[in-house]
């Protein structure tokens, strides 16, 4: 019996990954850049044994459906090839993040699974190889291997597509992200389906590709200069552009809800009142607000007043994947 256990934190992209160049290998159309956070994470244990006849997947104490387990099995197959083993596995995972709600559970979930498999089978993958492996489970997961600011270099094949931490001189430690939980239930359109539909049908998708590289360059420059305002402005407009592409897909769709708009408006009001803060959203209705730590309390207070205390979660920069003994 071979076992391993790992914890990985979620990450939120400031420059979004939106669209695959290669679905099978999960190679993205564009580079993305994220911040790993400390408030949401996954812990996963995996046990490989000759005595198991099938892969089993438990999430939050519940045995998962055949369809959900199949996704995990496909990932485990990649691991089995690397380890040259046929052993089936039992995966026991706990999400300290709502699952499939646009809060990046696939990032922490698949990064934790990759880390646990690496440990269990003694693969001794370094961070770069682990990032590549996690990428095969969910693109955004390749970034959760690392803490702080992380860039996923899109690359051009399996070898060259991986994430790495970007030097920031500790800038991330000055920042906070306030999560406004608008809906923590499972979304209707998964990230995978949403980006596929957008790439295949959206007339705005080319516009997304045309500007994302410039956004990325500006953001990296702003991180290097520790310019909070520019980081925030670039992040906010990049996120809005990503969401714009879904409106021109066929059939069109949006991840926004009325409360998402209410939260965005509150961010603009905060700015007008002299508190610099900026929003971004992923594939779900929840809104994430980037703010300097010195202003986090004012931002939290505004959202608690508008929504409720339970709907507002404060996060700071988090660390990369860790092995749990
Ligand atoms: P999210 O916004 O939460 O990342 P996605 O649509 O990208 O939503 O991904 C949700 C999917 O990620 C789930 O349906 C499941 O397949 C996978 N996932 C989430 N958490 C875990 C976990 N702990 N272990 C394995 N897979 C997970
Ligand atoms: C909007 O990594 O969840 O959150 O690779 O298909 O598993 P798959 O998708 P996923 O997509 C994340 C999309 C996003 C933007 C981002 O995190 O960069
Ligand atoms: Co995801």
UniProtKB/TrEMBL annotation:
Highest taxon in the source lineage: Bacteria
Top-level enzyme category: lyase
Keyword Iron-sulfur: no
GO cellular component term of the entry, any: cytosol
Keywords on record: ATP-binding, Lipid biosynthesis, Lipid metabolism, Lyase, Nucleotide-binding
Mvd1 C-terminal domain: residues covered: 179-311
GO molecular function, one term: diphosphomevalonate decarboxylase activity
GO biological-process terms attached to the record: isopentenyl diphosphate biosynthetic process, mevalonate pathway
Keyword Lipid metabolism: yes
Enzyme Commission number: 4.1.1.33
InterPro entries per the UniProt record, alphabetical: GHMP_kinase_C_sf (IPR036554), Mev_decarb (IPR005935), Mev_diP_decarb (IPR029765), MVD-like_N (IPR053859), Mvd1_C (IPR041431), Ribosomal_Su5_D2-typ_SF (IPR020568), Ribsml_uS5_D2-typ_fold_subgr (IPR014721)
Signal sequence bounds: none
Domain Diphosphomevalonate decarboxylase-like N-terminal: 8-163
Alphabetical list of Pfam families matching this protein: MDD_C, MVD-like_N
Family: Belongs to the diphosphomevalonate decarboxylase family.
Cited NCBIfam families: mevDPdecarb
Protein name, per record: diphosphomevalonate decarboxylase
Gene: mvaD
């Amino acid at each position: 019996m071979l076992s391993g256990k790992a914890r990985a934190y979620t990450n939120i992209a400031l420059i979004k990954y939106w669209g695959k160049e290669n679905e099978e290998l999960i190679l993205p159309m564009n580079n993305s850049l994220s911040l790993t956070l400390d408030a949401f994470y996954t812990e996963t244990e995996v046990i490989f044994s000759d005595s198991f006849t099938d892969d089993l997947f438990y999430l939050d104490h519940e045995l998962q459906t055949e369809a959900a387990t199949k996704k995990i099995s496909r990932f485990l197959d990649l691991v089995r090839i690397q380890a040259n083993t046929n052993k089936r596995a039992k995966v026991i995972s706990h999400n300290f993040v709502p699952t499939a709600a646009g809060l990046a559970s696939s990032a922490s979930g698949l990064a934790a699974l990759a880390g646990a498999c690496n440990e269990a089978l003694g693969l001794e993958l370094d961070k770069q190889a682990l990032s590549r492996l996690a990428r095969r489970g969910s693109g955004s997961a390749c970034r959760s291997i690392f803490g702080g600011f992380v860039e996923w270099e899109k690359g051009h094949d399996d070898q060259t597509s991986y994430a790495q931490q970007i030097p920031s001189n500790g800038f991330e430690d000055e920042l906070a992200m306030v999560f406004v939980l608008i809906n923590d239930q499972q979304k209707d359109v998964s990230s995978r389906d949403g980006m596929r539909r957008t790439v295949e049908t959206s007339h705005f998708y080319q516009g997304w590709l045309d500007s994302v590289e410039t956004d990325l360059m500006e953001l990296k420059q702003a991180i290097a200069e520790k310019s909070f305002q520019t980081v925030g402005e670039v992040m906010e407009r990049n996120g809005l552009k990503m969401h714009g592409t879904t409106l021109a897909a066929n059939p069109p769709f949006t991840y926004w809800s009325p409360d998402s708009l209410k939260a965005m408006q509150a961010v603009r009001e905060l700015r007008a009142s002299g508190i610099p803060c900026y929003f971004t959203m992923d594939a779900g209705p929840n809104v994430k607000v980037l703010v300097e730590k010195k202003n986090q309390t004012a931002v939290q207070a505004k959202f608690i007043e508008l929504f409720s205390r339970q709907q507002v979660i404060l996060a700071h920069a988090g660390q990369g994947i860790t092995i749990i003994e």
